[in-house]
């Protein structure tokens, strides 16, 4: 019966050519240790035999898969969902498909993701880095092969990799200054691993706002975690254990800010009367929590569109000498009731 046809494997191709299955696999993956002559023979034989993954044959001939890889920390983020939608639109309008993977905030998984993208012969790679990534050696194979790598939101400075982000220092400075103008003098900052430029710059903006308003910086008021909802609860518990309670909290994301607020409210803390709150990202939940959360708005969809456009530009000009350049997008502070102590 036609439906019972045997699936062709690399072992069938190996038997046909009297070579090892490992050599077939390497040839189909364009491994440098396999000669061009052998690669060509393996690809032709695979195609002739009806090997299901014969898309490799096409990509080896054309050097163009029309696939862009995307590696993000987590998919369950409102900002990232918006960014992906913007990327998808920009790429599909230019006839490119998208392969999406998540690092789950670990460099180890990010490395595995990158290796998988390389095997799948992506034409370009868009990356928002994991929480603990401390180097980008795993992206060097792409750079060496002249495959564009673009970092967005969580970026790493590299002279051949463009970066897209907002002015995190300025945004954090403005929101901390807003809390100070509301009468806050003892402001907790909840942030994440300072390896990430995005959080390091928000931290520096917070410190500079304190300095410019003659408020002493207290390291004990800085809480570093992974900014998850669970971390927000732990942050609230840490705040409640402080000898002197803070009168303001600036969290580096809304998710953590909201769970922190909820936990403090359950313990009788009045917001903003006792502690004023501000977050970052303008997640939809910022308008659901009571009181509504003051935050920084920057558009994930717009960042995604810009990332896609820059990728297409890089691919069009792939054979020219590329100079990485940064794109800094707009953001704005949105003041809501969680921080309004002076009305």
Q: Give the number of DSSP strands.
A: 12
CATH uppermost class of the largest domain:
Alpha Beta
By CATH, the superfamily of the largest domain comes out as Response regulator
CATH architecture of the largest domain: 3-Layer(aba) Sandwich
What count of structural domains? 3
Description:
The chain has 343 residues and is α/β, with parallel strands linked by helices. Helix content is 42%, strand content 14%. A six-stranded parallel β-sheet has the order 2-1-3-4-5-11, sandwiched between helices. Strands 7-6-8-9 form a four-stranded parallel β-sheet. The chain has a two-stranded antiparallel sheet with strand order 10-12. The radius of gyration is 25 Å and the shape is elongated. The model has no long low-confidence stretch (mean pLDDT 90).
Task: Supply database-style keywords.
alpha/beta; Rossmann fold; 434 Repressor (Amino-terminal Domain); single chain; four-stranded parallel β-sheet; 343 residues; six-stranded parallel β-sheet; 3 domains; elongated
